[in-house]
Amino acid sequence: MKISTRGRYALRIMAELANAQPNEYISLNTLSERQSISQKYLEQIVPLLTRAGFVRSVRGNKGGYTLTKNPNDITIGDILRATEGSLAPVPCLELEKNTCEKASTCSALKIWSGLYDTINNYLNGITLRQVADDITDPLIDNYCI
Question: How would you classify residue 57: left for phi > 0, otherwise alpha for psi between -120 and 50, otherwise beta?
Answer without folding.
Answer: beta
